[in-house]
Amino acid sequence: MLTKRIVPCLDIKNGRTVKGVNFVDLRDAGDPVVLAKQYADLGADELVFLDIAATLENRKTMHDMVLKVAEQVNIPFTVGGGISSIEDVDNLLHCGADKVSINSSAVKRPELINELSEKFGSQCVVVAIDAKEVDGEWLVHLAGGTIPTELNLFDWAKEVEQRGAGEILFTSMNHDGTKAGFANEALAKLSDLVNIPIIASGGAGTIQHFVDTFKDGKADAALAASVFHFGEIPILELKEELRIKGIPVRL
Amino acid sequence: MKLSIVNYGAGNIKSIQFAFQRLGYEAILTDNPEEIKTSDKVIFPGVGEASSAMIKLQQSGLDQLIPTLKQPVLGICLGMQLMCKHSEEGDTKGLGIFDVNVKQFSNQVKVPQMGWNTISNLKSDLFKGIKEKEHMYLVHSYYAEQCEASIATSDYELEYASALENGNFYGVQFHPEKSSKAGEQLLKNFIEL
After folding, report:
1. 3-class DSSP state for residue A59?
2. Half-sphere exposure of A174 (CA within 13 A, CB side)
3. What angle (nearest 5°) sits at the alpha carbon of residue B26, between those of residues B23 and B29?
4. CATH class given for the domain over A5-244
5. Smallest CA–CA separation between B89 and chain A, in Å?
6. Active-site choice (B88, B140, B175, B184)
7. Domains of chain B: residue spans and CATH
8. Does A121 sit within 8 Å of B47, measured CB to CB?
9. Cβ-count burial of A71 within 10 angstroms (0-12 exposed, 13-18 middle, 19+ buried)?
10. What φ, ψ does residue B102 adopt, rounded to 5°?
11. Taking the model in full, what pTM does it have?
12. At A146, is the pLDDT very low, low, confident or very high (cuts 50, 70, 90)?
């Protein structure tokens, strides 16, 4: 049986993890490669690296990091942040990334999704969607949720699927950082609407939130950052609890 | 030990090279028939679309070479699918090493299947030290049907063959290079065949 995935997300700036990480005794908690290995050993199913600076100057640093992660980590990983061309993706895949995630660049030029999936295959194209519920309507936002668009979340999700996305990473800006649970209603609606996997993001605070997003939100994977980085939720404990609740996980 | 990875421009082969490196083996990427023929073990990778991958193989003549190899050959993901008789993806004629057809999952399930699934009914030295219902990482929209050559099965919409064996030829639908310790064990087993 296909299992539900637990996905820690690491924010990267100039080749270093940004938010403090404090979940185990690490020599260098700022080194994404050390952290990635640790997460792989602790039972994470997949990793996401988000380049939050994503300037031209530090692109080379990002490539070096990706290469080192690919060299040392034996689980799949996705790289996102500042990716806007076929060349960007080609470089990252050549460095050993399994998937790339695109966000604003797909909204600005939706054809990019077609181009990437035709050239590299849908399996490596993740479209990240940040959306906020405003007056009862879910609107896609850009630049980390700061710039609203007129795009409806569900229309956009359907479109990215049709254009060849292999997966959708949906972050609810209403829930992100609240630690009050995932946007399960919108997630379930998305999951029924499209026929590609959905990664739930934004709102993880307790183990029960993960149970809920897999059951009520029908998510295929759940992504979180700080609850993992600060050891608030140990991944093994989380997966054991999920299994007890009847959710298939890899243990 | 001379280990080569068939390089025909299909997908992320660096990960496979790194996985062997972690096990202490250097694998070379090559499309040179002589190099491939004189290797002790051959990896036939593949990610992407079947018909265009097959065209690339044909252009380099590798479609003729691979079925004649005598040493252990391991097809991974699309590599395994191309070793079958036929694939529904792009109506592609395969190398015919495994007597089985490759079909598409229906829209009753999410496609691609993406993530960790269990493998069962293991019957090959390839799975030495790997337990029944171990998890492996998969990303695919097409699957090989249950058949005589099956040496592992998985369930997604239906029971299908997630690994195949015929003589010196082996194929796995999952990505051992991305499947944590169990995947490493499988690659180690392949090297030790």
Report:
1. helix
2. 17
3. 125
4. alpha beta
5. 13
6. B175
7. 3-191 (3.40.50.880)
8. yes
9. middle
10. -110, 125
11. 0.94
12. confident
| Residues 6+ away with beta carbon under 8 Å from B103 | B88, B142, B143, B145
Tell me which residue has tokens 């280990």.
B3
Radius of gyration of chain B (CA): 15
Distance between CA atoms of residues A14 and B30, nearest Å: 34
Tens digits of residue pLDDT in A201-234: 999 999 999 999 999 999 999 999 989 988 899 9
Q: Token pair of A137, please?
A: 């309507």
Please say if the pLDDT value at position A26 is more than 60: no
What is the Cα–Cα distance from A189 to A185, expressed in whole angstroms? 6
CA distances from A120 to A104, B51, B156 (A): 20, 14, 24
Cα A148–A171–A185 angle (5° rounding)? 100
CA dihedral A21, A22, A25, A26 (to 10 degrees): 10
For the beta carbon of residue B109, count every other beta carbon within 10 angstroms.
Answer: 13
Give the separation between CA B37 and CA A72, rounded to whole angstroms.
30
B5, B13, B15: which to substitute to probe chain A, counting the most A Cβ within 10 Å?
B15
* Local structure of residue A115 (DSSP, 8 states): H
- How far apart are alpha carbons B14 and A164 in whole angstroms? 24
Q: What sign does the CA torsion over A150, A222, B182, A234 have?
A: positive
CA A8 to chain centre: 8
d(Cα A78, Cα A207) in Å, to the nearest integer? 24
Choose, from A11, A45, A51, A212, the residue flagged as catalytic: A11
| β pairing state of A125-134 and B84-87 | unpaired
Cβ of B110 within 8 Å of Cβ of A3? The answer is: no
Q: How confident is the model at residue A21 (pLDDT cuts 50, 70, 90)?
A: low
**Interface touch B117/A166, C-beta < 8 Å:** no
What residue type is B62 in one-letter code? L
CA distance A135 to A152: 12
B162 touches A: beta carbon within 8 Å? no
DSSP code at position A122? G
Give the Cα separation of A110 and A31 in Å (integer): 34
**Catalytic residue (one of B77, B84, B89, B140):** B77
State how far the Cα of B48 lies from the Cα of A242, in Å rounded to an integer.
33
Between CA A105 and CA A244 the distance in angstroms is 41
